[in-house]
Every structure is written in C-alpha cells, then in structure tokens.
Design a protein that fits this description.
single chain, mainly alpha, Cyclin A, domain 1, 82% helix, Rab_GAP_TBC_domain
C-alpha cells in the first residue's frame, strides 16, 4: 500500500515532474512562490531581495520532501493528509502560512540568520500541536488561484529569455570563437618560434653528429695504427727474447767449453810441470853423478848459496841447462801452437785461452831460466 501511495503521488499529483528536465518545473514552483510572497508578504519579499536570500535557499526541501525532512512527525502526518486531499497547491499554502507566522523574526534577521532560522528555529517552532493546528487553519484560508497566471508569466519570461539568450549565446559564441582564434594565433606563433628553435637545435645536433662521426673515424684510424704498432712491438720483443735466449744458450755453451778447455789446459800444464821437474831432476842427477876429477858441478848443485856467483864462468853447465830449458819451453810452445783447441783463431774466447797458454808457457820458461841462472 505504501508503494502504491508513492506511485500515486509521483504520477497523479505531478511530484515526478519536479525531477525532470533539469528541475525546470521546480524552478517554476520557486517563481510561483516568489510571486505569492510578493502578494501576501511584500515586506518579507523585499527584505529577502535586499539581503540576497533566494527562494531556492530555503524552499527546495519543502517542494522536494513535502515538509518531511525537518518538521516533526505530528505536523508531517497532518500535512500528508492535506496534500492527498487538496493536491500540490497545499505546498504553497503551507509555505506562505509558515512565512506569515515567522514574519517578525524574518524581517529582523540578516542573511545568515535567515538561513539558520529556516534550518533550526522554524522546525522547532512547529513541534507544538496547537501551533501546527493554527498553521493548517491559516494555510487553508490562503488562496492560490493565481498560480496559473504566474505559470504563464514564467513561461513568457523563459521564452523571452530564450530569444534573448539565442542572440546572447551567439554573441558569446562569437566572442568565444574570437578569443579562441586569438589564442590559436598566439599558440601558432609560439609553436613557430619553437619550431625555429628546434630546427636550430637539429642543425647543431647534425653538426655535432658529423664532428663525432669524424672523430670516431679518426679514433678508429688511431686505434688501427696503435694496434699495428703494438703488433710490431710484440714481434720485435719476441725476436729480442728469442735472440736473448739464443745468446744465453750460446754463452752457456761457450762457458761450458771454456770450462772444459781450462780443465784440459790445467791437466796439460800439470803434466808438463811434472815432465819438466823430472827433466830437472834427471839433469841434477846427471850432474851429481859426474866423475870428472876437476868437475865442480856436484858442489854447485849441492850448495844452497852462492850458486850464481861461484859458477858464473862455467859455460858448459849453463849451456846444458839453457838447452834443456829452451827445449822444454819450445816443446810446450809447439805443443800449444799445434793444439787444435788453440788454433781456432776466429773465436775470441779461444784466442784468449791460447794467450793464457802462451803466458803459462812463458812463465814456465822464465822459471827454468831463473833456475839456470841460479845453477850458473
């Protein structure tokens, strides 16, 4: 039943029209209420105009909720009975009655006070049942037969505003398009300047790219050259290392050969020394075994001092010793000269060894000569 009542109110009582077409009918109701206030409550109407209070600021809830939002239930129940009985005109009647009962308070308040009064004080004032009954009795006595006239006035005003609004709208559209054109021109100029700047940047970037490309090519050439030089250095280093290894091996071979030659020469010198010693011992034995009656050689050989001065005139023993010494030295020199190891004149080391052998032979010869001098 409640839903059926809601459907009845929305359709048959025209309540649904308030929410259609951008609340166009609701604005019509506001205009009708303004005209009723101007007729019945001119002082309140003028005061609201002066302080800037519009009808929709306080009456929108009256029309959209049928006084059910703020007012007490006792008043709401009575009003719904009145609404179902008389129709939508009761909204205007109750609204004018509320304004009449609050006339003194409303004309003395400012903008914020008026809005607060409608929001707080007016619902509280209606909580008394006697006040509610007085409100409904007053509302029934209010005549709202001019609502149709006010509706025609509103429609005429809307039509006039519509015709005027077309020209105004065209003017506004023209001004808007002109402003849009100016804006687009300014934006076009800005874009043109930006394009010029971007072209300059692009040209600079192109030049930089060419320079970088040339620098890259030069770098590649330098890299190739350095790689070639590195390869050459590596090859040279490799050859030097190989040559150094070869020289080291050759030096090691020469040192080994030198050691072998030195060992052989030492053995040979030792052998020659022993042979010369044996020869000297043999000569000494021969001299000591001399049986000549007037021979003084035995005394010269056995004497420890005065050997050189006592027998300096004895040429026979000196000649024998000189001959023996020369023969031994000559044999040593000939042996050294005929040695294949010393004959290799092309090798500096061999030449040095040969010179060493010759020096040793000469030293042995000097020793024999010294011994010969002592014998004399």
């Amino acid at each position: 039943q409640a839903f059926c009542v809601l459907v009845k109110i929305m359709s048959d009582y025209g309540f649904r029209n308030l929410f259609k077409d951008g609340f166009e009918v609701l604005h019509l109701r506001f205009y009708q209420l303004d005209r009723l206030m101007e007729d019945y409550l001119n002082d309140v109407y003028v005061h609201f105009q002066e302080i800037g209070v519009a009808t929709h600021m306080f009456a929108s809830q009256w029309f959209l909720t049928l006084y059910t939002a703020k007012f007490p239930l006792y008043m709401v129940f009575h009003y719904l009975d009145l609404f179902l009985l008389t129709g939508f005109d009761s909204v205007f009647q109750v609204g004018i009655a509320l304004l009449m009962m609050s006339r003194k308070e409303l004309v003395s308040l400012d903008f914020e006070g008026v809005l607060k009064y409608f929001r707080v004080s007016l619902p509280k004032k209606s909580r008394n049942e006697d006040t509610a009954k007085q409100l409904f009795r007053l509302s029934i006595s209010i005549k709202v037969k001019r609502l149709d006239k006010y509706q025609r006035e509103y429609l005429a005003l809307k039509e006039q505003e519509s015709s005027e609004s077309v020209s105004e709208r065209l003017g506004l559209e023209n001004r808007r398009l002109l402003a849009e054109k100016l804006r687009l021109d300014a934006e076009n100029d800005s874009l043109a300047r930006r394009i010029d700047a971007l072209e300059e940047v692009a040209e600079k970037a192109t030049r930089d790219a060419k320079q970088l490309k040339q620098g890259l090519a030069d770098t590649e050439q330098e890299k190739t050259r350095l790689m070639q030089e590195a390869t050459q250095v590596k090859d040279l280093l490799k050859r030097e290392v190989e040559r150094s290894d070869s020289e080291q091996k050759r030096s090691a071979a020469i040192v080994s050969e030198y050691k072998t030659i030195c060992g052989q020469l030492s053995s040979r010198l030792e052998t020659e020394h022993n042979q010369h010693k044996q020869a000297i011992d043999h000569i000494s034995a021969c001299i000591l075994s001399c049986t000549a009656p007037d021979c003084k050689c035995r005394e010269a050989v056995s004497s420890d001092s005065g050997m050189g001065t006592s027998y300096s005139s004895n040429s026979s023993l000196g000649n024998i010793i000189d001959t023996t010494t020369s023969t031994a030295a000559g044999g040593l020199m000939s042996t050294s000269a005929g040695d294949p190891l010393t004959a290799a004149s092309g090798d500096p080391l061999t030449a040095a060894l040969t010179a060493r052998d010759d020096e040793a032979a000469r030293r042995r010869a000097r020793e024999l000569s010294s011994l010969s001098s002592q014998v004399r």
